[in-house]
Write a structure and sequence with these properties.
Layout: H1 2-25, H2 32-39, H3 43-49, H4 53-65, H5 69-76, H6 83-100, H7 104-114, H8 116-125, H9 129-144, H10 153-164, H11 171-177, H12 185-204, H13 208-227, H14 235-247, H15 253-297, H16 302-320, H17 323-339, H18 341-355, H19 363-369, H20 373-379, H21 386-395, H22 405-415, H23 420-444, H24 466-484, H25 487-500, H26 515-523, H27 535-546, H28 550-559, H29 562-568, H30 571-583, H31 588-598, H32 600-626
Helix pairs in contact: 1-2, 1-4, 1-7, 5-6, 5-9, 15-16, 15-17, 15-23, 16-25, 16-28, 17-24, 19-20, 20-31, 22-23, 22-30, 23-30, 25-28, 26-27, 27-28, 30-32, 31-32
């Protein structure tokens, strides 16, 4: 009995010594003499236990594999434990083996690449296949019963091995166990990788780049929680976290954004801005009456009186009455921006923008584009990806800049007084929707590829600062007034002159005989299918290329009164005109900024493309509207 125990102890000692040498040096570099010397016996004594090195390798490999394969088998076939607990036990068993044998992965890879057939024969002689087949049968049964998600079994093993020990996932091992005769390793990888990506995106509700960024930050948070000592969370941060559960929630973020912007437009165009604009309009009209009376009392010439009242006062004054609307709108937008909500908008929109080929970074230039297209285009310089930058610049003009507000407000109040806030909201979101559609077209044609990952730190919510709000309001009001008394003033004078005189520079009694009517009459037929083929509207659209605010002033100068405009256009034609103004080419300053950023060819492309898109959209609106009107 003692002799038997001694033999067993010596055999274990030989196997441990051989395992140590095989792992350190490899099978090919280890000789039987090395093993004998390691144990302290001669070679004949070693041959008594293991006649060949292959038998020795089989014993060593069996010792390694049998240390965890049966354990995994026993864990999996247990029926009284949840799958999650079983997987945890499997991982623990795996890593215990690797902790005890740090060089084991290198040894396995070395032997697989040296002679996979030798390794496969060893596995078969040890009858390990029965364990593998039993494991696969149990997994398949779990899937059939609905306790596990249905996944191809080879994919389960690939994912499991790659997650635990990348060195075990080798071409030779995969070919030995899972590939049929006609299959190739490359083909199975082509199937496996997209499957894993789709599964990750489905389970996390994020695309690949966002999911990877999310997992990285989860890992960073875990490390920081274990190593960094933080002070207690501030009340501001706790309050922001509670608010973000609603404003940035998966199912509530977009509805909240639409609701907040709808409320802003309602207060601006239906309540506060509308009231202030009406008061300012009354003041401008009253002051205009005083000026007109003074010119009449002084017996001013007809040309001078027409220039002052019909040209300057009628044109610039009609635009100035929209100043309260612009100030009110940017008052609310500045509150949202200074409170920290606009940063959340960029975060919320990142997922949506990725589906059209952009990242959340692109939302910042687009949001600036709601104020003015020029700084919006310039803000795209912050984008690191040239592809994203070009796409963002081409899409920013679809966002309704503040210069279009007078056009929207004028036609909404004149033709849709009961639904002006709804019309304004529809125009703003209509521009966003058209931008999204164009992004899909650009992504599938000229700008193929994926957007760069987007990461930003969300600030805590805070009360807006009065100084910041007032500065923004002053900047917007000053910019609008500068345009009103420079570009719009000059455009008004030119329009008045061309409308008042004919080619002989004689004053005309009917503006249809003027120079302006002759010029605009050439392009007016282009707009007739949309219901606004009047030469005066064509003239206003041309002046809008200089500055969008000039559209309203030009119409006021040419028509003389709002009632004349109402007599010229139907509500359907007015809706088509609004859609055209929403989408047609931005002003000359915006085109110049696009030329500076992208070059002349892209600037020309923007002008032509947006005019064509605007014409088609207005034509569709008019054609669709005729079916119901």
């Amino acid at each position: 009995m003692t002799t038997t125990n001694n033999n067993e102890d010596l055999e274990k000692k030989i196997i441990e010594a051989a395992k140590e040498l095989f792992i350190e040096n490899g099978f090919a570099e280890t000789s039987m003499s090395d093993i004998a010397a390691k144990v302290g016996i001669n070679r004949p004594a070693l041959h008594y236990y293991f006649r060949t090195k292959d038998k020795m390798f089989q014993a060593v490999f069996g010792n390694i594999i049998l240390s965890f394969i049966p354990k995994i088998h026993d864990i999996i076939i247990q029926q009284d434990k949840p799958v999650s607990e079983s997987i945890g036990e499997i991982v623990d068993a795996y890593y215990k083996v690797f902790t005890e044998n740090p060089c084991l992965p290198l040894f396995m890879v070395r032997e697989m690449h040296r002679d996979m057939n030798h390794l496969s024969d060893t596995i078969k002689e040890l009858r390990l296949e029965q364990y593998l087949h039993k494991i696969m049968d149990v997994l398949q049964e779990e899937m059939n019963d609905g306790r596990l998600k249905t996944v191809p079994l080879p994919f389960v093993f690939y994912t499991f091995y790659s997650a635990l020990t990348v060195p075990f996932l080798t071409k030779n091992l995969s070919a030995s166990f899972f590939l049929e005769k006609d299959d190739s390793f490359e083909d199975i990888l082509v199937q496996w990788k997209p499957y894993i990506v789709r599964q990750m995106e489905t389970e996390r509700g994020l695309d690949r780049a966002a999911a990877i960024a999310h997992m990285r930050f989860d890992f960073i948070d875990k490390i920081c929680d274990e190593t960094v000592v933080r002070p207690h969370e501030s009340r501001e941060h706790l309050r922001s976290v509670r608010i973000d559960k609603v404003l940035t929630g998966r199912h509530t973020a977009i509805p909240c954004f639409v609701g907040i912007m709808g409320l802003v437009f309602f207060l601006t165009f239906g309540v506060i801005g509308k009231l202030l604009s009406a008061l300012l309009s009354m003041g401008i009209n009253a002051l205009g009456g005083v000026v007109d009376s003074a010119l009449t009392a002084w017996n001013a010439p007809y040309v001078l009186r027409s220039l002052v009242m019909d040209g300057i006062w009628g044109g610039v004054g009609s635009v100035l009455q929209f100043l309260p609307i612009i100030v009110t709108l940017f008052f609310f937008l500045s509150l949202l921006e200074d409170s920290g909500y606009m940063a959340r908008v960029a975060f919320v929109m990142d997922k949506l923008l990725r589906k059209i080929g952009l990242s959340g970074r692109s939302i910042v230039p687009m949001l600036i584009g709601f104020g003015c297209t020029v700084p919006g285009v310039m803000a795209s310089r912050t984008l690191t990806s040239e592809r994203d930058r070009k796409m963002t610049i081409l899409l920013t003009p679809f966002m309704s800049c503040s210069a279009k507000l007078p056009i929207y407000a004028f036609f909404s109040a004149a033709f849709f007084p009961k639904y002006s806030a709804l019309v304004m909201t529809a125009l703003y979101f209509g521009g966003i929707l058209m931008g999204l559609l164009m992004a899909l077209v650009l992504r599938g044609t000229m700008f193929r590829g994926e957007a760069v990952p987007f990461v930003m730190e969300l600030p805590n919510y805070r009360l807006p600062g009065a100084k910041n709000v007032c500065r923004l309001l002053w900047d917007k009001a000053k910019d609008f007034l500068q345009r009103a008394f420079t570009v719009i003033f000059l455009a008004t004078l030119i329009i008045w002159f061309l409308q008042t005189f004919d080619l002989r520079f004689a004053i005309v009694s009917d503006s249809s005989q003027s120079i302006l009517a002759m010029i605009a009459g050439v392009i007016a037929p282009v707009f007739r299918p949309m219901g606004f083929g009047d030469w005066r509207i064509s003239t206003a659209l041309i002046s809008g290329f200089m500055a969008k605010e000039s559209v309203v002033s030009t119409l006021t100068v040419l028509f003389g009164s709002t009632s004349d405009i109402l007599a010229c256009l139907t509500p359907l034609a007015a809706a088509s005109l609004l859609v055209f103004c929403l989408l047609y080419t931005p002003c000359v300053a915006a085109i110049a900024s696009i030329k500076r950023e992208l070059g002349g060819k892209w600037a020309v492309f923007v002008v032509i493309a947006q005019c064509v898109i605007a014409w088609l959209a207005a034509f569709v609106v008019h054609g669709f509207g005729t079916l119901f009107v």
